[in-house]
Amino acid sequence: MKQIRYLTAILIGCLTLAAPASAEETQAGLKIQEVFQRYGKKRNVTMVELSNEMLETYDMTHYKSITIKDDPEALRFVRRCLETDQQGARKIKEVVDDGGIVSAYYQLSGSGERNRFILFKLSRRGIVTLVYIEGDLDSEDLITILFAGNKDL
């Protein structure tokens, strides 16, 4: 009986440790993952990751965003990461001004049956916003969510 409880405790511990890693695996192989890791806990940065309940509402399996204020080096780093990750992606929208990307919306090749998206925006005040979304929604669904006035994303 003690062996069964011990084995159960080990399995629960392993599953608990594995759960956070699965969220990061969704971005595995993407350069933008480094943006979230490098800047996620810095000053003047807001990072958001939605809970499962919120994700299900929008047919998403993963949502992560980061907003970085007043950091020119971070902007350069984000743009370099975008240049890498956009290779092979479907450009839904890309705006370049003065030689640099100021707005972008890419659909990456899916992982399995899920679609993956990267959204980027540089505001006039120099605020960088980067969003990674994965889920069953397609690009038209995402546009509907974004432009239907849903500011809670």
Description of the molecule:
It contains 5 helices and 6 strands, in the order H-H-E-H-E-H-E-E-E-E-H. It has a 6-stranded antiparallel beta sheet with strand order 1-2-6-5-4-3. The protein has one domain: Protein Transport Mog1p, Chain A (3-Layer(aba) Sandwich). The radius of gyration is 18 Å and the shape is globular. Residues 1-25 have low confidence and may be disordered. It has 153 residues and is α+β, with helices and mostly antiparallel strands. Helix content is 39%, strand content 33%.
Give a quick rundown of the structure:
This protein has 153 residues and is an alpha+beta fold. The chain has helices at 2-25, 33-39, 52-57, 72-85, 139-147, and strands spanning 45-49, 60-68, 90-97, 100-111, 114-122, 128-135. The protein has one domain: Protein Transport Mog1p, Chain A (3-Layer(aba) Sandwich).
Q: Which assembly state applies to the chains in this document?
A: single chain
Number of helical segments?
5
Quickly count the domains: 1
DSSP summary, beta strand count = 6
CATH class: Alpha Beta
Radius of gyration: 18 Å
Overall helicity? 25-40%
Instruction: Indicate the low-confidence ranges by residue numbers.
Output: 1-25
Biggest sheet architecture: 6 strands, antiparallel
Major sheet strand order: 1-2-6-5-4-3
Average of per-residue pLDDT values: 80
